[in-house]
Amino acid sequence: MIIAEWKPLPELIQQLRGYHRLLLVGCAACAAECAAGGEREVETLAPLLRLALPAEGRPIQIVTRTLERQCEWEFVEELAETIPKVEVVLSLACGIGVQAVADRFPEIPVYPGVNTTSLALRQEPGLWSARCLACGDCRLGETFGLCPVARCAKSLQNGPCGGTRPNGSCEIAEHLDCVWNLIVERAIARGQMESLLEIRPAKDWSNSHHGGPKRMLREDLRP
Amino acid sequence: MVPRQDIRREEPAVNFKPEIVLLYCQNCVVEDADLSVAAKANSRFQAKLVMMPCASKVEASHLLKILAQGADGVVVVGCPYQQCHRLDGSLRAEKRIEYLKQLLRESGLPAERLGMERGLNLSGLQLMLLAEKRALAVRPLGPNPMKEGLAA
To answer: Domain B17-140 adopts which CATH fold?
Structure first.
Protein backbone atom coordinates (compact mmCIF):
# COMPACT_ATOMS: atom_id res chain seq x y z
CA MET A 1 0.00 0.00 0.00
CA ILE A 2 0.99 3.65 -0.27
CA ILE A 3 1.99 4.84 3.16
CA ALA A 4 1.90 8.32 4.58
CA GLU A 5 2.28 10.04 7.91
CA TRP A 6 0.79 13.20 9.40
CA LYS A 7 2.67 16.37 8.70
CA PRO A 8 4.05 18.06 11.81
CA LEU A 9 1.09 19.70 13.55
CA PRO A 10 2.67 23.19 13.73
CA GLU A 11 3.06 23.03 9.91
CA LEU A 12 -0.61 22.01 9.50
CA ILE A 13 -1.76 24.78 11.81
CA GLN A 14 0.45 27.30 10.02
CA GLN A 15 -0.92 26.52 6.58
CA LEU A 16 -4.52 26.87 7.75
CA ARG A 17 -3.93 30.34 9.13
CA GLY A 18 -6.60 32.81 8.10
CA TYR A 19 -9.23 30.30 6.99
CA HIS A 20 -12.58 29.96 8.74
CA ARG A 21 -14.32 27.10 6.93
CA LEU A 22 -12.32 23.94 6.33
CA LEU A 23 -13.11 20.65 4.64
CA LEU A 24 -11.02 17.85 6.13
CA VAL A 25 -11.16 14.93 3.74
CA GLY A 26 -9.76 11.46 4.29
CA CYS A 27 -9.36 8.36 2.14
CA ALA A 28 -10.60 4.93 3.17
CA ALA A 29 -8.00 3.08 1.09
CA CYS A 30 -4.21 3.14 1.68
CA ALA A 31 -4.22 6.22 3.92
CA ALA A 32 -6.66 4.45 6.24
CA GLU A 33 -4.66 1.22 6.22
CA CYS A 34 -1.54 3.05 7.34
CA ALA A 35 -3.47 4.94 10.06
CA ALA A 36 -2.76 8.35 8.56
CA GLY A 37 -5.88 9.46 6.73
CA GLY A 38 -8.86 7.18 7.26
CA GLU A 39 -12.11 8.11 8.97
CA ARG A 40 -10.58 7.50 12.39
CA GLU A 41 -7.70 9.90 11.73
CA VAL A 42 -10.00 12.49 10.17
CA GLU A 43 -12.23 12.40 13.25
CA THR A 44 -9.16 12.71 15.48
CA LEU A 45 -7.52 15.58 13.61
CA ALA A 46 -10.75 17.60 13.29
CA PRO A 47 -11.27 18.21 17.03
CA LEU A 48 -7.53 18.71 17.47
CA LEU A 49 -7.58 21.50 14.88
CA ARG A 50 -10.73 22.94 16.46
CA LEU A 51 -8.85 23.09 19.75
CA ALA A 52 -5.58 24.41 18.30
CA LEU A 53 -6.85 27.04 15.92
CA PRO A 54 -8.99 29.14 18.30
CA ALA A 55 -5.98 29.20 20.62
CA GLU A 56 -4.35 31.31 17.94
CA GLY A 57 -7.39 33.54 17.63
CA ARG A 58 -8.84 31.90 14.55
CA PRO A 59 -12.22 30.24 15.12
CA ILE A 60 -12.75 27.64 12.42
CA GLN A 61 -15.63 25.46 11.24
CA ILE A 62 -14.57 22.02 10.11
CA VAL A 63 -16.56 19.71 7.86
CA THR A 64 -15.26 16.14 7.71
CA ARG A 65 -15.60 13.61 4.89
CA THR A 66 -13.88 10.34 4.14
CA LEU A 67 -14.01 9.13 0.54
CA GLU A 68 -13.88 5.49 -0.45
CA ARG A 69 -10.85 6.32 -2.59
CA GLN A 70 -9.55 9.82 -3.14
CA CYS A 71 -7.71 8.79 -6.30
CA GLU A 72 -10.84 7.94 -8.32
CA TRP A 73 -12.91 10.64 -10.01
CA GLU A 74 -16.28 9.12 -9.14
CA PHE A 75 -15.49 9.28 -5.43
CA VAL A 76 -13.88 12.72 -5.62
CA GLU A 77 -17.09 13.94 -7.27
CA GLU A 78 -18.88 13.34 -3.95
CA LEU A 79 -17.23 16.52 -2.67
CA ALA A 80 -18.91 18.72 -5.29
CA GLU A 81 -21.74 19.81 -2.99
CA THR A 82 -19.48 20.57 -0.05
CA ILE A 83 -16.69 22.46 -1.83
CA PRO A 84 -18.67 25.71 -2.43
CA LYS A 85 -19.41 25.90 1.31
CA VAL A 86 -15.76 25.88 2.45
CA GLU A 87 -12.70 28.08 1.92
CA VAL A 88 -9.98 25.46 2.01
CA VAL A 89 -9.48 21.70 1.80
CA LEU A 90 -7.06 19.70 3.91
CA SER A 91 -6.57 16.24 2.45
CA LEU A 92 -5.26 13.31 4.44
CA ALA A 93 -4.86 11.15 1.34
CA CYS A 94 -1.57 10.39 -0.40
CA GLY A 95 -0.16 12.80 -2.96
CA ILE A 96 -2.34 11.23 -5.65
CA GLY A 97 -5.54 11.94 -3.73
CA VAL A 98 -4.50 15.51 -2.97
CA GLN A 99 -3.84 16.14 -6.67
CA ALA A 100 -7.10 14.50 -7.74
CA VAL A 101 -9.08 16.85 -5.47
CA ALA A 102 -6.99 19.85 -6.56
CA ASP A 103 -7.51 18.96 -10.26
CA ARG A 104 -11.26 18.48 -9.90
CA PHE A 105 -11.73 21.67 -7.83
CA PRO A 106 -9.03 24.08 -9.05
CA GLU A 107 -10.93 27.05 -7.64
CA ILE A 108 -10.14 26.16 -4.03
CA PRO A 109 -6.80 25.73 -2.19
CA VAL A 110 -6.09 22.10 -1.34
CA TYR A 111 -3.38 21.41 1.23
CA PRO A 112 -1.77 18.06 2.01
CA GLY A 113 -2.20 16.93 5.60
CA VAL A 114 0.25 14.06 5.25
CA ASN A 115 3.66 13.35 3.80
CA THR A 116 3.51 10.39 1.41
CA THR A 117 6.59 8.33 2.14
CA SER A 118 6.69 4.99 0.33
CA LEU A 119 5.05 1.83 -0.97
CA ALA A 120 5.13 -0.42 2.02
CA LEU A 121 3.97 -3.55 3.75
CA ARG A 122 2.45 -3.67 7.21
CA GLN A 123 4.84 -6.02 8.97
CA GLU A 124 2.96 -6.05 12.27
CA PRO A 125 0.50 -3.72 14.01
CA GLY A 126 2.05 -0.25 14.10
CA LEU A 127 5.05 -1.12 11.89
CA TRP A 128 5.26 -0.53 8.14
CA SER A 129 8.33 -1.18 5.97
CA ALA A 130 9.08 0.01 2.43
CA ARG A 131 8.92 -2.75 -0.18
CA CYS A 132 8.74 -1.00 -3.56
CA LEU A 133 10.00 2.20 -5.18
CA ALA A 134 7.98 1.78 -8.40
CA CYS A 135 11.25 1.71 -10.38
CA GLY A 136 9.55 0.50 -13.56
CA ASP A 137 11.79 -2.53 -14.20
CA CYS A 138 10.91 -5.23 -11.69
CA ARG A 139 13.65 -7.81 -11.08
CA LEU A 140 12.13 -9.54 -8.06
CA GLY A 141 12.30 -12.85 -9.92
CA GLU A 142 16.09 -12.64 -9.93
CA THR A 143 16.41 -11.65 -6.28
CA PHE A 144 14.16 -14.30 -4.75
CA GLY A 145 11.27 -11.94 -4.09
CA LEU A 146 13.30 -9.41 -2.11
CA CYS A 147 13.68 -5.93 -3.59
CA PRO A 148 17.17 -4.41 -3.40
CA VAL A 149 15.96 -1.18 -5.00
CA ALA A 150 13.57 -0.38 -2.15
CA ARG A 151 15.21 -2.24 0.70
CA CYS A 152 18.91 -1.57 0.19
CA ALA A 153 19.98 1.89 1.36
CA LYS A 154 22.19 2.12 -1.74
CA SER A 155 19.74 0.31 -4.07
CA LEU A 156 22.63 -1.97 -4.98
CA GLN A 157 22.03 -4.47 -7.77
CA ASN A 158 25.08 -6.55 -6.85
CA GLY A 159 25.26 -6.51 -3.07
CA PRO A 160 25.94 -7.01 -0.33
CA CYS A 161 28.28 -4.10 0.20
CA GLY A 162 30.92 -4.12 2.92
CA GLY A 163 28.60 -2.51 5.45
CA THR A 164 26.59 -5.53 6.53
CA ARG A 165 26.87 -6.05 10.28
CA PRO A 166 27.76 -9.46 11.71
CA ASN A 167 24.12 -9.92 12.81
CA GLY A 168 22.87 -9.31 9.25
CA SER A 169 21.60 -5.78 9.71
CA CYS A 170 22.50 -2.76 7.59
CA GLU A 171 25.27 -0.38 8.58
CA ILE A 172 22.91 2.60 8.54
CA ALA A 173 20.59 1.26 11.25
CA GLU A 174 20.56 -1.69 13.62
CA HIS A 175 16.84 -2.36 13.02
CA LEU A 176 17.22 -2.55 9.20
CA ASP A 177 17.92 -5.94 7.69
CA CYS A 178 20.57 -6.04 4.97
CA VAL A 179 18.37 -7.13 2.08
CA TRP A 180 21.31 -8.63 0.19
CA ASN A 181 22.07 -10.77 3.21
CA LEU A 182 18.44 -11.94 3.09
CA ILE A 183 18.71 -12.58 -0.66
CA VAL A 184 21.81 -14.71 -0.21
CA GLU A 185 20.21 -16.62 2.68
CA ARG A 186 17.13 -17.34 0.58
CA ALA A 187 19.27 -18.38 -2.39
CA ILE A 188 21.20 -20.82 -0.21
CA ALA A 189 17.98 -22.19 1.28
CA ARG A 190 16.68 -22.90 -2.24
CA GLY A 191 20.02 -24.30 -3.36
CA GLN A 192 20.26 -21.69 -6.14
CA MET A 193 23.23 -19.68 -5.02
CA GLU A 194 24.84 -19.97 -8.45
CA SER A 195 21.99 -17.96 -9.98
CA LEU A 196 23.28 -14.88 -8.17
CA LEU A 197 26.59 -15.24 -10.00
CA GLU A 198 25.03 -14.95 -13.46
CA ILE A 199 25.95 -11.89 -15.49
CA ARG A 200 22.76 -9.93 -16.07
CA PRO A 201 22.10 -6.95 -18.35
CA ALA A 202 22.11 -3.57 -16.67
CA LYS A 203 18.84 -2.56 -15.09
CA ASP A 204 16.75 -0.25 -17.27
CA TRP A 205 16.22 2.89 -15.22
CA SER A 206 14.63 4.77 -18.13
CA ASN A 207 11.22 3.45 -17.07
CA SER A 208 11.62 4.91 -13.57
CA HIS A 209 11.23 8.57 -12.64
CA HIS A 210 14.57 9.23 -14.36
CA GLY A 211 12.71 8.90 -17.66
CA GLY A 212 10.39 11.77 -16.77
CA PRO A 213 6.79 11.66 -15.50
CA LYS A 214 5.16 8.29 -16.21
CA ARG A 215 2.11 7.79 -18.33
CA MET A 216 0.39 4.51 -19.12
CA LEU A 217 -1.85 4.21 -22.13
CA ARG A 218 -4.11 1.26 -22.98
CA GLU A 219 -6.01 1.94 -26.18
CA ASP A 220 -8.23 -1.10 -25.64
CA LEU A 221 -9.60 0.43 -22.42
CA ARG A 222 -10.19 3.90 -23.74
CA PRO A 223 -13.69 5.13 -24.62
CA MET B 1 -5.79 4.53 43.73
CA VAL B 2 -3.94 7.66 44.77
CA PRO B 3 -3.86 8.31 48.51
CA ARG B 4 -6.26 11.03 49.59
CA GLN B 5 -3.52 13.18 51.12
CA ASP B 6 -1.93 13.69 47.67
CA ILE B 7 -4.81 15.93 46.74
CA ARG B 8 -4.15 19.51 47.66
CA ARG B 9 -7.28 21.32 48.72
CA GLU B 10 -7.58 24.95 47.88
CA GLU B 11 -10.52 27.25 47.47
CA PRO B 12 -10.95 28.49 43.92
CA ALA B 13 -9.54 31.97 43.61
CA VAL B 14 -11.87 32.78 40.76
CA ASN B 15 -15.36 31.66 39.92
CA PHE B 16 -14.10 28.68 37.91
CA LYS B 17 -15.73 25.31 38.43
CA PRO B 18 -13.95 22.80 36.16
CA GLU B 19 -16.14 20.39 34.22
CA ILE B 20 -14.53 16.97 34.27
CA VAL B 21 -15.63 14.03 32.14
CA LEU B 22 -14.62 10.75 33.74
CA LEU B 23 -14.74 7.65 31.55
CA TYR B 24 -14.36 4.52 33.62
CA CYS B 25 -14.06 0.83 32.90
CA GLN B 26 -16.98 -1.07 34.38
CA ASN B 27 -14.57 -3.62 35.84
CA CYS B 28 -12.85 -0.98 37.99
CA VAL B 29 -15.93 -0.19 40.04
CA VAL B 30 -17.60 -2.24 42.77
CA GLU B 31 -20.92 -3.64 41.68
CA ASP B 32 -23.02 -1.68 44.15
CA ALA B 33 -21.08 1.58 43.81
CA ASP B 34 -23.18 4.62 44.62
CA LEU B 35 -22.35 6.66 41.53
CA SER B 36 -24.74 9.41 42.51
CA VAL B 37 -22.08 10.50 45.03
CA ALA B 38 -19.65 11.18 42.20
CA ALA B 39 -22.15 12.85 39.94
CA LYS B 40 -23.60 15.02 42.72
CA ALA B 41 -23.33 18.78 42.46
CA ASN B 42 -20.14 20.01 44.01
CA SER B 43 -18.95 23.51 44.80
CA ARG B 44 -15.42 22.91 43.48
CA PHE B 45 -15.94 21.02 40.22
CA GLN B 46 -18.53 19.25 38.12
CA ALA B 47 -18.11 15.61 37.11
CA LYS B 48 -19.82 13.70 34.35
CA LEU B 49 -19.40 9.92 34.53
CA VAL B 50 -19.41 7.61 31.53
CA MET B 51 -19.18 3.84 31.95
CA MET B 52 -17.32 1.77 29.35
CA PRO B 53 -17.04 -2.01 28.96
CA CYS B 54 -13.23 -1.57 28.91
CA ALA B 55 -10.90 1.44 29.03
CA SER B 56 -9.57 0.40 25.61
CA LYS B 57 -12.95 1.25 24.08
CA VAL B 58 -11.97 4.89 24.25
CA GLU B 59 -10.69 6.24 20.93
CA ALA B 60 -8.40 9.21 20.45
CA SER B 61 -11.19 11.00 18.63
CA HIS B 62 -13.60 10.53 21.57
CA LEU B 63 -11.27 12.27 24.01
CA LEU B 64 -10.47 15.16 21.69
CA LYS B 65 -14.15 15.67 20.84
CA ILE B 66 -14.97 15.91 24.55
CA LEU B 67 -12.31 18.62 24.92
CA ALA B 68 -13.40 20.35 21.71
CA GLN B 69 -16.94 20.49 23.10
CA GLY B 70 -15.74 22.46 26.09
CA ALA B 71 -14.92 20.02 28.91
CA ASP B 72 -12.12 21.38 31.10
CA GLY B 73 -10.59 17.97 31.71
CA VAL B 74 -11.00 14.31 30.77
CA VAL B 75 -9.87 11.36 32.82
CA VAL B 76 -9.97 7.71 31.83
CA VAL B 77 -10.04 5.15 34.63
CA GLY B 78 -8.75 1.68 33.81
CA CYS B 79 -7.68 -1.46 35.61
CA PRO B 80 -4.30 -1.62 37.40
CA TYR B 81 -1.27 -2.99 35.52
CA GLN B 82 -1.43 -6.77 35.06
CA GLN B 83 -4.94 -6.88 36.50
CA CYS B 84 -6.87 -5.79 33.42
CA HIS B 85 -10.01 -7.85 32.90
CA ARG B 86 -9.34 -7.73 29.14
CA LEU B 87 -5.62 -8.53 29.59
CA ASP B 88 -4.17 -5.45 27.91
CA GLY B 89 -7.14 -3.11 27.59
CA SER B 90 -5.94 -0.53 30.11
CA LEU B 91 -2.46 -0.61 28.56
CA ARG B 92 -3.92 0.17 25.15
CA ALA B 93 -5.90 3.05 26.65
CA GLU B 94 -2.76 4.39 28.30
CA LYS B 95 -0.79 4.27 25.04
CA ARG B 96 -3.58 6.15 23.26
CA ILE B 97 -3.68 8.80 25.96
CA GLU B 98 0.10 9.29 25.88
CA TYR B 99 -0.09 9.63 22.09
CA LEU B 100 -2.84 12.23 22.45
CA LYS B 101 -0.90 14.17 25.05
CA GLN B 102 1.98 14.32 22.59
CA LEU B 103 -0.37 15.63 19.87
CA LEU B 104 -1.73 18.26 22.25
CA ARG B 105 1.77 19.42 23.19
CA GLU B 106 2.84 19.57 19.53
CA SER B 107 -0.23 21.71 18.83
CA GLY B 108 0.66 24.10 21.63
CA LEU B 109 -2.19 22.93 23.85
CA PRO B 110 -1.98 21.92 27.52
CA ALA B 111 -1.76 18.14 27.88
CA GLU B 112 -2.82 18.40 31.54
CA ARG B 113 -6.46 18.44 30.46
CA LEU B 114 -6.09 14.75 29.73
CA GLY B 115 -5.21 12.05 32.24
CA MET B 116 -5.44 8.39 33.11
CA GLU B 117 -5.95 6.76 36.48
CA ARG B 118 -6.03 3.16 37.56
CA GLY B 119 -7.97 1.42 40.25
CA LEU B 120 -9.93 -1.65 41.25
CA ASN B 121 -13.12 -2.03 43.26
CA LEU B 122 -13.56 1.72 43.26
CA SER B 123 -16.50 3.27 45.08
CA GLY B 124 -18.48 6.25 43.86
CA LEU B 125 -16.58 8.43 46.32
CA GLN B 126 -13.24 7.24 44.98
CA LEU B 127 -14.32 8.05 41.42
CA MET B 128 -15.24 11.51 42.63
CA LEU B 129 -11.77 11.92 44.13
CA LEU B 130 -10.17 10.95 40.80
CA ALA B 131 -12.32 13.55 39.06
CA GLU B 132 -11.30 16.09 41.69
CA LYS B 133 -7.63 15.28 41.10
CA ARG B 134 -8.04 16.15 37.40
CA ALA B 135 -10.04 19.26 38.37
CA LEU B 136 -7.11 20.45 40.49
CA ALA B 137 -4.70 19.75 37.63
CA VAL B 138 -6.69 21.86 35.15
CA ARG B 139 -7.53 24.67 37.56
CA PRO B 140 -4.31 26.63 36.83
CA LEU B 141 -5.14 26.44 33.12
CA GLY B 142 -8.44 28.22 33.57
CA PRO B 143 -11.62 27.40 31.60
CA ASN B 144 -11.37 25.58 28.30
CA PRO B 145 -11.41 28.27 25.56
CA MET B 146 -13.78 26.03 23.57
CA LYS B 147 -16.60 26.66 26.01
CA GLU B 148 -19.45 28.47 24.37
CA GLY B 149 -18.72 32.17 24.14
CA LEU B 150 -15.11 31.79 25.24
CA ALA B 151 -13.62 30.75 21.93
CA ALA B 152 -11.70 33.60 20.39
So the answer is: Rossmann fold (3.40.50)
